[in-house]
Amino acid sequence: MDLQALLDDIAHDSAPFAAQGRVADYIPALAAVDPAQFGIALATMDGQLLGSGDWRSPFSIQSVSKAFSLALVLARDGESLWQRVGREPSGNPFNSLVQLEYEKGIPRNPFINAGALILIDRLLSLTGDSLGTLQAFLRAESGNAAVEVDAEVAASEAAHGHRNAALAHFMASCGNLENPVEVVLDHYVRQCSLTMSCGDLAKAGLFLANHGLLADGSRLLTRSEAKRINAIMLTCGTYDAAGDFAYRVGLPGKSGVGGGILAVLPERGILCVWSPALDAHGNSLAGVEALDRFTTRTGWSVF
Ligand code: GLN
Fold first, then answer.
1. For 259-278, what is each residue's pLDDT tens digit?
2. With a threshold of 0.70, does the pTM exceed it?
3. Quick one: pLDDT at residue 140?
């Protein structure tokens, strides 16, 4: 199969779908991004890195970062994490408040915002520097030393982060935060504001397709832990559209409101797409379209 020609084709056919979506505007700095951008990159297990469109352009990774946070916490904490956060799809928007009160401050899963705040809180307790640990990991695995926080995006989100603050304060009131709310929120917004390209993210995620083995051959996760993260990506990685994503794409995936989606092709590689215009659930419209086309044409799905 000519993978380069396939990616070019998919980029050509999928990019126009961005016109049907809208950039995230609840974080003002993201609303300023040009929606007419599209990139797709494929990193393969045998070391190839291919891409098409804007695949080398850095963008705000936002909640794609949460897949990496989960890996870093699970690698250190193992199963005890599940006393503080669940692993069921929420069926609600990623920043919803309502379920958290009924469920006594235990977020449904680690990928909704409340759950990611728990991951960051835990990584802070374990390492003293959640953001620094994640940033060092992403730099090492992507091979890009310029993985940086976009200070403007971080400040913009911090200034408008009332919902995330509400989630964090509510969890603190339930005794489910170990660190001060302000510190957890600060690491959260800066983590979401890290900028990487499709190519960077595809390389950095390869351990998820390789049963937990890192680029240097060392092991981050057991085989079973890597399987579990992929399962949670499939069931929860695209929020209240996870069922539709599984139906259309058939791969574990993690999206972010910057328009990025990282998808795992087990034992083959990582596919990362980026296009800033989102659907109503906060997933990249042209990005999901491209992943749908990719698995339809290659048959490389988990099903
Ligand atoms: N930083 C965003 C927020 O907290 C992340 C959400 C997302 O990418 N789905 O709202």
1. 999 999 999 999 999 999 99
2. yes
3. 98
Say how far apart CA 46 and CA 210 lie, in whole Å.
11
**Could you tell which of 59, 60, 62 is best to mutate to test the pocket of ligand 1, judged by most ligand atoms within 8 Å of the CB?**
62
- On the CB side of 240, CA atoms within 13 Å amount to 12
Boundaries of domain holding 28: 3-298
Pocket-testing residue among 192, 233, 262, ligand 1, by greatest number of atoms within 8 A of Cβ: 192
Mark whether 247 is an active-site residue.
Answer: no
38 burial via Cβ count (<10 Å: 0-12, 13-18, 19+): buried
Q: Which of 278, 300, 303 is nearest to 31 (CA)?
A: 278
How open is the CA angle 238-123-63, to the nearest 5 degrees?
20
The domain tally of the chain equals: 1
The closest-lying atom of ligand 1 relative to the alpha carbon of residue 64 is 8
The amino acid occupying position 231 is A
In percent, the amount of the chain with pLDDT more than 70 equals: 100
Nearest atom in ligand 1 to the alpha carbon of residue 258 is 8
- Work out the burial of residue 2: count CB atoms within 10 Å of its CB; fewer than 13 is exposed, 13-18 middle, 19 or more buried: exposed
Q: Return the percentage of the chain with pLDDT > 90, whole number.
A: 99
Find where tokens 């992929």 sit: 230
> Are residues 219 and 213 in contact, defined by beta-carbon separation less than 8 angstroms?
yes
303 found inside a domain: no
Tell me, what DSSP letter sits at residue 161? -
pLDDT of 197: 98
In a domain, 272, yes or no: yes
Residue 81 has a pLDDT of: 96
- CATH code assigned at 28: 3.40.710.10
Please report whether residue 103 resides in a domain. Answer: yes
Q: Is 63 one of the catalytic residues?
A: yes
52 vs 149: CA distance, rounded Å: 25
Say yes or no: CB of residue 157 within 6 Å of ligand 1. yes
User: What is the pLDDT at residue 216?
Assistant: 95
